[in-house]
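Retry 2 of 3 after timeout on previous attempt. Resubmitting structure tokens to design endpoint.
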């Protein structure tokens, strides 16, 4: 029996596998197009980060994460659609790109949570340890995947994904979830009018302050991190579900890695441009309507805002403590990790 078209790689695969392989090609193409589009629409922002702001370590990590993520998506797409002389060499290359992408994206998460928990050595140590475990787990990816040619053609297909690759996904999920929980707790602590565990729990469960809490979480960029966590969960479920074809196991990592990186980069840009404060508190508009300032305590300011920094309606923030009304109209102090570079921004408190 002769093949209908021996020059077509899909002719050497069973019909079901050929269909799955073709679907994976479409997914890779869509992911590549979406990620390139995300880069294109943010070229202006990336230009400002590079040439109008001082380039510190977090900015370098931001650009590296974008580069490695794009490299991972591109090499994966080439693996699926192009004629490749050495499939295993390309497979190792894309595995390295994936490991670097996950490590640098996790570093963006780490820098964010370290800024929020600045000064807490225990929290810093825990999250640094989690990042190291993510980096180590990611480093196993190039050794756990194999690729072969489809029949006598130069087209490639995955032939093996080692079981220990799951550790990369599990550690990524644990790390991202812990960071989301830690930042949310910090925002929750700031939202509670009274500083007690019971009040924080009631606030989190919706007891009276849920509108303020919801706005604080949204303004803190938590919804982007939650999307990243959901992406990790979806990828892990697809990998563990025996009813999901093996071809789709590797395929799911491409869009999820792209999504997680895009979400982390959105938060980073928002922090750099002052839309989100680096330390987890919200920002308030001063009486000078031309400029917005970050709400972070400094040594020369009243410590009142440390207990409650949830967004309130209006242009100023007012609290009544011990029967005395105190109005805070301007509080300015910038986190060193995400310091803004506008020289005209006064670092004073009024």
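Retry 2 succeeded. Sequence:
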């Amino acid at each position: 029996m002769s093949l209908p078209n021996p020059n077509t790689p899909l002719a050497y695969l069973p019909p079901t596998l050929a269909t799955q392989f073709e679907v994976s090609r479409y997914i890779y193409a869509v992911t590549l197009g979406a990620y390139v589009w995300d880069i294109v629409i943010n070229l202006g922002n990336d230009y400002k980060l590079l040439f109008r702001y001082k380039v510190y370590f977090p900015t370098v990590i931001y650009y590296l994460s974008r580069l490695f993520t794009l490299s991972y998506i591109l090499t994966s797409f080439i693996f699926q659609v192009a004629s490749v002389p050495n499939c295993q060499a390309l497979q190792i290359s894309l595995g390295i790109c994936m490991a670097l992408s996950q490590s640098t994206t996790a570093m963006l998460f780490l820098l964010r949570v370290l800024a929020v928990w600045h000064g807490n050595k225990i929290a810093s140590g825990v999250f640094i340890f989690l990042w190291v475990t993510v980096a180590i787990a990611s480093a196993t990816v190039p050794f756990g995947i194999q690729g072969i040619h489809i029949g006598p053609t130069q087209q490639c297909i995955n032939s093996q994904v080692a079981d220990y690759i799951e550790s990369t996904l599990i550690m990524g999920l644990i790390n991202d979830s812990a960071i989301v929980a830690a930042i949310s707790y910090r925002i929750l602590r700031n939202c509670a009018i009274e500083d007690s565990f019971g009040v924080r729990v009631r606030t989190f469960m919706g007891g009276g302050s849920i509108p303020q809490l919801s706005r604080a979480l949204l303004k803190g960029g938590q919804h982007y991190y939650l999307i990243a966590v959901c992406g990790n969960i979806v990828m892990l479920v697809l990998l563990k579900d025996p009813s999901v074809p093996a071809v789709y196991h590797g395929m799911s990592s491409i869009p999820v890695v792209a999504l997680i990186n895009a979400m982390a980069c959105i938060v980073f840009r928002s922090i750099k441009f002052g839309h989100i404060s680096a330390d987890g508190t919200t920002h308030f508009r001063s009486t000078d309507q031309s400029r917005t300032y970050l709400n972070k305590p400094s040594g020369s300011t009243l410590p009142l805002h440390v207990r409650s920094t949830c967004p309130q309606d209006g242009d100023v923030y007012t609290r009544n403590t011990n029967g005395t009304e105190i109005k805070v109209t301007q509080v300015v102090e910038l986190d060193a990790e995400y310091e803004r570079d506008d020289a005209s921004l006064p670092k004073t408190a009024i």
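Attempt log closed. DSSP finds ten helices and six strands in the chain.
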